[in-house]
Structure formats: structure tokens, C-alpha cells
Amino acid sequence: MSFVERPRMKILLIIFASVLLSVGPSMGQIPGGPMLTITEMILMRDGLHLATDVYLPKKGQGPWPTLLVRTPYNKNLYNIEYGSLAARSYAVVVQDMRGRFGSEGVDLAFFDCGWGERQDGVDTIRWIVRQKWSNGKVGTLGASAMGITQNMLAGAAPENLVAQYILVAAGSLYHHGAYTDGAVRLEQTMGYLLDNAFDPMNIWLTILHPMYDEHWLRFDAIAEAGKANVPAVHYGGWYDAFLAGTVDTFMARQERGGPGARGRQKLIIGPWCHGGPGTEAKPKRTGELLFPSNSRRLPHGLVGMKWFDHYLQGKANGAEKAPAAMYYTMGAIDEPGAPGNLWRMDDVWPPKADAIKFYLRADGLLSRKRSVKNEASQTFTFNPYNPVPTRGGGNLCIPSGIFDQRVIERRPDVLVFSSESLTKAIEVTGPVTSILFVSSNCPDTDFAVKLCDVYPAGQSMNVCDGLLRVRHRNGVDRLDLLKPGEIVSIRVDLVATSMIFNKGHRIRIHVTSSNYPRFDVNPNTGWPAWSFCPVQIAHNTIHCSASHASFIELPVVYRPSE
Q: Could you tell me which residues come within 8 angstroms of residue 224 by beta carbon, excluding any fewer than 6 positions away?
């Protein structure tokens, strides 16, 4: 994501500030005329100073509750968007992270945001509550990297932190940021670090720690969820690069957070990419599709500043009574009367569903019935020098969202399995996983799975996807290479969705061995994907027999009242 003082960063900021936080106009005069103090250089525990802007309400004497934003993208970008919040009787503090723009130090991304030796977020809150304009209550907010800083801060459990509003953020920088089941999130990791001109040491540290180890534990707020102790909103999109981070963080805090966090988390997921829904005046497409205008109107009382007004100002506005999970169930586009394309509300996530297995058949059929044949399979050739290109999905630095996949499906290295036309609509809401029985002539390879919604006219639109590096099939903290021809069972995580496949549509999945540049390309030799390492063409097999029945498991929700 090219976020260093570039138009795309400004657009993302305006979308989240104006749509989610209801701060008024995103350009022009600041409502109410809040004043900006001089930039403060706040002392951290190791003697370095971080550049920090403070916005105070023009009217009133205070003290006020404080909204804190910590950013790697230059605090000067926020003088209108977050300064507007000061007109709502909040002090607003916006800080450049360590080593970024006006702040001292080396910019090792997120190193000092959490519970480690240096705790910049904690030190900043301690500074805030000592100021005469502070009433001792602090809330944090922000999207993407500013959401990651919030997740890290929650793991440090600072005093005086009262509530958070976390948008489109990773919870674990290994599992949600740099890697996915052992494969490098190439466009995301390299694109983010290079485009934002971070210190090269960030890239070296990522490359030199390909497995989940002590290095990555310091960036895993999911592992520290038991220390989180505040209510929070977790806001994401079905096609956001950090969907898994949003869901995993919500689940971890909701189920095993501290007393102030457990049972007090809220989840919002809409049909959006990383940039959010846009506005009524300028709606954003989700790839090639534009969802109805109701997708841009968030449900219940979590719209705007109600969350902070309740927890930081004590207003009885019902924000805390919102359902635990609010998510947009997608449906067919441009099909009058098609079910779906509406908001759902539940007290739990995921909602109650039946785990229905759809089996991959050697004849290309996706069926509720497994094969009765003792030997049935499909084999394809995976050439690392000609990887399957990324087309949509939850990407960060390249086009994301929903795209017609037919150009991908015509490749000989993509296996396609399709159901019969549906005789009735099927709702799939919840986590999606695939269990494959696979073998290869190589000691290592990848398997990528994609779920698609096939329209009657033939468009094959991606719903969700995942990829597994086979050497990490037993865990991302260990290596287990394959023996040639050995059949093993692997689990490919497609994260989650909420989609109604309409009557007359077909459910389809792809299986292949690459998705580039979303992920780096496996050389199939057990070596890293480095230019000087050996490369081998792989002949990969998906087994579809009675004894090795590969399948995708879909959470099917039945709503008889609809």
C-alpha cells in the first residue's frame, strides 16, 4: 500500500474518517475551530522522543477524554480529519511512530508498539494522562497500520485505556501480515515496506524468520489476547487483506480476553476491500462488482462516534448493546429478487451452521456424494516459472475484490470442480476450509484453493481463497518435506465469508499451486523462493477416491423464516 503522503493514503483516511467516525467534512475548515498545540516531543523510556500533535477543543476548559492515533504515515496528514474530533469535546493526539517522519529512532515497523522492552504506546498514554487537559480516559482508533498499533497496545494492557475502534488490521504479523501458512505474502510484505520506504532491516528480519518463532511472538496480539482488557470494535471486509486478522482478534478477545474485554467485543464485516465502502456520493466497487447502497450504511449504534461517546463520555446511547456480530451477507448482483445483500446481526460469530462437505470428483464435479472408486485423481503440472497470476481476492498493494475468474480457469495448471446448477439458494456463512489428499513428485509444493460463485451466464466470481505450503502442513514452526508419491492430507484455510449462492448458480472451486504475486512462488525443492535456489517442475495430484476423498467444507445456514 503506497501510503507515504500519496493520494491513496489520503483517500483511505477520508473514507474511514467521514463514513465511520462521522467527523463532518473531510476537507476545509475544522468544525468548531479546535486549536492545534505546538508539536510535542514526548520522551520514551529509552530516552528517545516521538513527534506528537495535540488538538484541543476551542470551547470549554476541560479536562477532556483523549483519542489517540499512532501512525507510520506522517501525522501531518491528519490535521483536518482527526482534528475535527476536537470539536466533539475530545482531546486528540496523533503521533508519528518511532523512526517515522518527525520521531526519533529506527523505523522497525511495530517493534515498539506493544509489550516488549520498549513500549511506546504505553509511554504515550502515561504522558497523556499527566496533562492538565486530560480527564484520564483514553481511547484509540485508526485503520490498517493504525489498527495494528492498537492491537499491539492492547496486549500491553496499559492503565487508562478505556476503549478501541480497530479497522482492517492484522492481529498477528506472522499469520496475517508477512506469511500465510508458510508462504510469503509477497505483494503485501514487500509492497508495503518498499513503498513506504521503511528501513531495509524490516525486510531482512522478515526473510530471516520464515517460520513462526520467538521473533514473531513479539508481534502476535492474538497470543496476548488474555491481557487485553477493554471493549473494542473490530471492523473488516470480506475482501480485505486483513480479514483473518479482524476475525481472529475479535474471537480471541471475545472468548479469552481479560475481564474488561471478554464478551464486550463487536465485529463488523462488510462486502469491502481494504479501502472500505466509500460514501454514498462516491461508492467504491468491490473489484468488478458494486454492492447495493445499503452495504455502505453500518447497522446499529456503532456508526460514528457513539462507541467513544458511550465509553469515554458516559453517554447512554446504547452502543454497548449492539449485537456481537454484524456482517453483510452477500448475494447475486444485478439479479432482481436475488436473496442476500443485507446486514445480519447475531450474538455470536460464527452463527449456527451445518458443516456440509462438497467432494471433489475426478470428472470435475463438485458433489455432496463422495466417489465410490478405489482410485480416482487429477494431476496437473506446476511450473514455477509460469505461476498462476493473482486475480482479485484480499490483497493490499494490488487490485483486490471480486473478479471474473474464467481467464484463470482456462489454464491447464488449474483444476476446476463445479456443482450442478442449484435448485434452491444456499447461504454459506462462517469459516471455510478444504481438506485435500495430495501427492507430488517433489519434496515440497503449494496448494491453493479458491471458492467461486458461478452465474448462469458463466461468470465465475471469487468468494474466498487460501494457500498452504506443504512443508508446513503440520505447523508453521516446523518443516516436513514430502516423499515422492506420498499421499498426505492437508488443510487449506479459506478464512470466512457470508454469501448466498442463488438458485441457478453453481458452486465452484479451483485447485492449483500458485497465486502470484499475492504469494511468493514455491520452487518445489524445499528451498526458499530465492533466485539462486534450485527450482523443479512439479507434477501435483489431487486424490478423489473413496479412501482419499478431498472436499471443501461449507458452513450452510438455514433460515426457514426467510
A: 114, 115, 154, 155
Please report, to the nearest 10 degrees, the dihedral formed by the alpha carbons of residues 385, 390, 396, 400 taken in order: 160
Residue type, 167: L
**CATH 3.30.70.330 describes domain 354-557:** no
Please report which residue ranges of 37-196 form alpha helices under DSSP H. 120-129, 145-156, 186-195
Residues of the chain with CATH 3.40.50.1820: 7-172+219-274
Q: Which runs of consecutive H residues, i.e. helices, occur in 337-464? A: 406-409
DSSP character string of 467-516: EEEGGGTT-TTS--PPPTT--EEEEEEEEEEEEEE-TT-EEEEEEES--B
Residue with cell 473478479: 403
Grid cell 469491502 — which residue? Answer: 272
Q: Tell me how long the chain is.
A: 562
Most confident of 18-22, 297-301, 449-453: 449-453
Q: What is the pLDDT of residue 302?
A: 79
Q: Quickly tell me which residue has 498545540 as its cell.
A: 37
Nearest Cα neighbor of 527 from 448, 413, 445 is 445
CATH superfamily, domain at 7-172+219-274: Alpha/Beta hydrolase fold, catalytic domain (3.40.50.1820)
Give the C-alpha distances (Å, rounded to integers) separating 555 from 245, 338, 427, 498. Answer: 20, 20, 8, 9
Residues of the chain with CATH 2.60.120.260: 354-557
CA proximity to 460, closest of 413, 512, 501, 503: 501
CA distances to 16, 175, 247, 520 from 209, in Å: 33, 13, 25, 15
- pTM equals 0.94
- What mean pLDDT is reported for the chain? 92
HSE-up (13 A, CA, CB side) for residue 208: 8
